[in-house]
Please model this.
Amino acid sequence: MKISIHYKITAIFGIIIGIILMGVYFYLNANLSERAYLKTKDNLLKQVFLSKSFIEQSVDKKNTSSKQIDALAKHIAKDLRVRVSIISLDGILEGDSELNGQQLLEVENHLQRPEIQQALKSQVGENRRFSTTVKKEMLYIAALYGKKKPLGVIRLSIPLLEIEIISGNLKKMLSAAFFIAFIVALLISFFVSMLISKPVREISLMATGIAAGDLSKRILIASNDEIGDLIKAFNFMAEQIKSRIEEVTAGKSKLEAVLLSMFEGVMVVDDMGKILFINQTLRDLFKSEIDVKGKTPLEIMRNIEIQEITDMILKLKGGVKSREISVTLPEKKILLINAAPIAKGAVFDGAVLVFHDISNLRHLEKIRRDFVANVSHELRTPISSIMGYTETLLDGALRDKDNAEDFLRIIHSDSERLAKLIDDVLDLAKIESDNLNLVLKPCSIKKIVQRIVSGLETRAKAKSLKININISDNMAAIMADENRIAQVLVNLIENALKYTESGEICVLAEEEKNFLRIIVSDTGMGIPEKDIPRLFERFYRVDKAHSKELGGTGLGLSIVKHIVHAHNGEVSVQSRQGKGSSFSFTIPKA
Ligand SMILES: Nc1ncnc2c1ncn2[C@@H]1O[C@H](COP(=O)(O)OP(=O)(O)OP(=O)(O)O)[C@@H](O)[C@H]1O
Ligand SMILES: [Mg+2]
Model:
């Protein structure tokens, strides 16, 4: 059970005050009866002497009757409120305030009473004993009286019970006074201890607050003593803790911000291989929303290779390990993992793993490899054809005039194809290497379209196709490199002509916020849905044989995409197989 320091101090004060008061009380109490007795005796002695002189003035032995003496005793007693006895020198009780005439006669001789004997000997005598006459414990004081010679003894007596009563009353008063003093002292100590314990309580409250994270509280320093020093130290400590926590929090949030904004995934595991932290990038990579703390990498990422590299670094406790792995869940990705141990001094504390998503890099590398393979393949076909036909011609076919001409025509067409392929590849390489050197200036899309369409008119006519231009005269100008935009349009309109057998081709433009959208649509063969996403890849052709027959290399749309992107525009395609296609691109307004 918790007892407040306030109550403890009060209790200690209470006990100390109680002990002191009780000591004083018992001491006074013990002496009280004795003091009361001595006081009463002293009083009685004074009264005896007073009565003695009074009686000496009033009594003349020869002329005073025993009746007068008795009246005198009663008179003195009335004033002094004590028992007064007057005894003759031979011990006869001549007067007594408590006895009447008859009783006086019956009382035995008092000569042998100790106080009388003492008084006869030495003027004054005293004794305390039980009085057979009045049946009470009494204190007697007797004195000889008589001016020139002793005439008798005057004796005053008082019941000791009376002293007891007086001392009893005193004791009661004393008890009451001590009790009140005790209560008052207790109350004072209660308030004093409250005053002392108040700052202690405040310190305790503040400490509890600090433990609960509230560092804003401060205590007012009211005293210039040890408690004041303690409060000062406490306030200082709170201030220090606050600034340390702020420092740590700032450092932590900085680190968190860095980890959060990192493009790489980061995972920290403890020395037992349990996850302590993973950053958002890694969470996104593995789509893990659950609380990962305390779990193993295998549980979260479901990849044995990640678990293996974690285990390896925890086992080796040194060096940096790198490994490239491919994950299939939740997405197909290639990750480069760098794992390093975390050590605090000589103590090994876990490991940190950094995940680089190198899927794009590897994909680009693959595209480049494929590109080289594709280019060599595309080049080989016309070259082998040219080589084959020239060999045949040299082997004698040259003399066969009809065939020789056909062969030469094929060689010419393959050479043209080769030249176009080389042109396209070089163009694409130039565009891709960001060396496009665009000459941007405001230009009218309608004019460009008209120029190109008139150039392709003959080819359209040969296939009985009509090219419609639907662009308003006051269409906004575009900010573009005219020649490159012309290249885009040639590619798109050529495709439309190539892959359309009947119907019409339409070129239109519309405004879209800060852009102009140019649409080239046809009523041709259309493109299967599965091929649409890959359409803009280099050398991608829906129907390779058919496209080749038409002299296509599969680079046209790739060039289109790059030129439009270089203008900050977008390309898109909509197509339905057998119904037609619609290619569109956007170019910023001037
Ligand atoms: N308007 C269209 N209608 C149907 N298919 C199309 C259309 N435009 C392009 N395609 C398909 O997309 C493929 C890629 O087009 P791209 O222009 O890149 O190459 P190409 O026309 O075959 O050759 P190149 O343009 O280099 O001479 C084509 O082979 C064709 O299959
Ligand atoms: Mg094309």
